[in-house]
Design brief:
Blueprint lengths: L2 E5 L2 E4 L4 E8 L7 E7 L6 E6 L6 E3 L7 E6 L4 E6 L8 E8 L8 E4 L3 E6 L1
Parallel strand pairs: 2-11
Antiparallel strand pairs: 1-3, 3-8, 4-5, 4-9, 5-6, 7-8, 9-10, 9-11
Length: 121
C-alpha cells in the first residue's frame, strides 16, 4: 500500500517550466512502477509519462516527448515531472499513480489527489 500527494502545480506562462512532485508514503514505494496522467476539462484522462521501479526505464506520450522528463528518487520516496516549453494545451489536472506501469490507467492501483497546472498565453 502507498499513499500519494502531488505538489508543484500552479499558473505559468506559455514557454515556461514547472516541476511537479509526488510524495509517497508507506513501505512499498520501491515495489511500484509510477506514472503521470492528466485530465483537462471536458476531456478524458490521458497518459503523460511512466517510469519503472528502478528509474531506469521511462516512457512518454508523443505530445510531451522532448519537453517533459519523468524521474524518481526512491531514497526520498518522491516522483517528479519536469515540464518545459509549456503550451496552453498542457493545461490540466495532473495525477501521479503507482502500479504496474504502462500507458493504461487501469494498470495503476494508487492515485494522488491531483494538482492543477494552468498555462496561459
Amino acid at each position: 500500500q502507498v499513499q500519494l500527494v502531488e505538489f508543484g502545480g500552479g499558473l505559468v506562462q506559455a514557454g515556461g517550466s514547472v516541476r511537479l512532485s509526488c510524495a509517497a508514503s508507506g513501505r512499498t514505494f520501491r515495489n511500484y512502477d509510477m506514472g503521470w496522467f492528466r485530465q483537462a476539462p471536458g476531456k478524458e484522462r490521458e497518459f503523460v509519462a511512466s517510469i519503472t521501479w528502478s528509474g531506469r526505464g521511462t516512457s512518454y506520450a508523443d505530445s510531451v516527448k522532448g519537453r517533459f522528463t519523468i524521474s524518481r528518487d526512491n531514497a526520498k520516496n518522491t516522483l517528479y515531472l519536469q515540464m518545459s516549453s509549456l503550451k496552453p494545451e498542457d493545461t490540466a489536472t495532473y495525477y501521479c499513480a503507482a502500479g504496474s506501469g504502462g500507458v493504461s490507467s487501469s494498470t495503476y492501483d494508487y492515485w494522488g489527489q491531483g494538482t492543477q497546472v494552468t498555462v496561459s498565453s
